[in-house]
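Hey L., structure's done. Input below.
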Amino acid sequence: MSRGKSQQHPVAARRKALGWSQDDLSARAGVPRSSVSAIEAGRLTPSVTAALAVAQALECSVEELFGAGEKRAADVAWAWEPQFDSNRYWEAEVGGRKWLYPVETLPGSAWAHDGICREKVLHEHSDWDASRTLVLAGCDPAAGLLTAEYAAESGFRLLAFTRGGGAALDLLKQGVVHVAALHRSTVEQPDRNAETVLGKLGGGYRLLRSADWQEGIVLPAADHTRSITSCARQVRHWAMREPGSAARECLDDLLGRPHASKRIMLSHQAVVEAVRGGWAEAGVCVRLCAEDAGLRFLPVRNESLDLCFPAALERDPRIQALIRLLRSRAHRRLIDELPGYDASHTGEMIAI
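Output:
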């Protein structure tokens, strides 16, 4: 049950009675000051470990501070609905609220789940601080590299959920992710990413360049088709991305019309697997996926992959860590070595 605006949180009341600042409590309990602030404001329900640490520092019981039935308050919710009654989940704080994320297979992720939900009861296993997790939605097949580098350099955790650009922006609009990746800008239309964000979300956002890359047609290794025009005319069975994705937009432009399909691929890698598995003749993806799978690739256009986040989060330590990483010489060198990637503008930022 949430508290009224005039009712002080027991943690704040006890801390003030002892004459401590939030920094004092943070140091004595060993939890971040941002977490202390969020707990006292009622925006964050602490993990079992954090609750015990705060209670011990304040020389109170957990029940006195958080209540016997408030382990999971009403402000803890699923970022999106889980598919099953029993689900493993991760936790992260976005917009001052703790969200639960059903576990998915993420690119390069080795993060253990934070807990499991059985019959609508949450059983927490991890004491990971939700305010130290950055949540990103996008379709970069190299997101696994970013995840590993980010953790090593910052000490924060990155959850990079695979979503097309349109779906990623929807999640950003809903306030359940910190960052959404999109790649509609091309050499011919360099402002498409900014225009898309402005049209869908409005102003008050930043675009941080992750990379420029080549998108094109992936074909079986033995296919000798030499031109894009020939592919558009001859291929009957395409591996289709979902509507709203830049790859789908690229294919529709190639074919000269929207193309319907009952089979939808939700990532560049899924397109490659469909072609490699033989049930699709061709598809649109980035060069990296095609070459790593040993398939042929016909470049169609050069695109800019930008990371979009609210301007209000620019000073958030998690976002600052991401900016520092993208601007580092080591990361830019690594990106430049990926097939079809170009780090010439990586780390550049524009305001919307």
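Confidence is low (pLDDT under 50) at residues 1-5, 69-75. The first helix runs from residue 10 to 17.

-- N.
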